[in-house]
């Protein structure tokens, strides 16, 4: 566990009583809503919105984060939702350790960091964690939001095609189900309305 990384994310979560809405990520709901439940790995689970939703659909969830504060809030959320028996929380610095096992769904929702982060290495570990017949869903920011700071405007986000290439998949062993850049309407921290661009990669192991 890198203490600087853990401290950064703990401080971010402690800065507010709640960082996120508590609702599941919309692309996760869109993709997974029609799938039969199984085992799921939630990478960077934050305050537990996705873990709660998955468990309510009947998934057995392994939820992972580097922040102890985030994991505490996630545990409280699944307990309040009555689905704690379906969720196993694990603390991992994904740059150093990765959960064991194979999963029917591996979900990496906005697994992006302002810190030095071996993104490609972590995504390839996520590939290895997908069970036969299972899926990897990667959703990332595709652009700085309209209300984002001016100094972030120069940031370049990998395209879905570039992310797919980084996964280094065997084409005989995988099927690409989605590769696109959907847009959605969102509200900023001060009530600003705007359009967000996301990058989405959905692949299924044969």
From TrEMBL:
UniProt xrefs under InterPro entries: Methyltransf_25, SAM-dependent_MTases_sf
Keywords, ordered alphabetically: Methyltransferase, S-adenosyl-L-methionine, Transferase
GO MF annotation: an example: methyltransferase activity
Q: Does the keyword Iron apply?
A: no
Domain Methyltransferase per the UniProt entry, residue ranges: 41-134
State if Transferase is listed as a keyword: yes
Gene3D superfamilies on file: Vaccinia Virus protein VP39
Q: What is this protein called?
A: Class I SAM-dependent methyltransferase
Q: What is the lineage of its organism?
A: Bacteria, Bacillati, Actinomycetota, Actinomycetes, Micromonosporales
């Amino acid at each position: 566990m890198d203490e600087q990384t853990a401290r950064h994310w703990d401080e971010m979560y402690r800065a507010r009583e709640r960082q996120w809405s508590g609702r599941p990520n919309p692309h996760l709901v869109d993709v997974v809503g029609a799938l039969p439940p199984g085992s799921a790995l939630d990478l960077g689970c934050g305050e537990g919105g996705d873990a709660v939703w998955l468990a309510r659909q009947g998934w057995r969830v392994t939820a992972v984060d580097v922040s102890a504060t985030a994991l505490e809030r996630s545990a409280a959320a699944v307990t309040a939702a009555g689905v704690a028996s379906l969720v196993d929380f694990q603390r991992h610095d994904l740059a150093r350790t990765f959960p064991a096992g194979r999963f029917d769904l591996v979900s990496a929702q906005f697994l992006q960091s302002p810190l030095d982060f071996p993104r490609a290495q972590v995504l390839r570990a996520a590939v290895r964690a997908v069970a036969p017949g299972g899926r990897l869903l990667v959703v990332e920011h595709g652009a700085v939001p309209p209300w984002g700071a001016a100094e972030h405007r120069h940031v370049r986000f990998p395209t879905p095609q570039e992310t797919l290439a980084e996964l280094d998949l065997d084409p005989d062993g995988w099927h690409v189900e989605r590769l696109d850049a959907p847009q959605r309407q969102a509200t900023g921290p001060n009530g600003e309305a705007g359009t967000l661009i996301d990058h989405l990669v959905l692949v299924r192991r044969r």
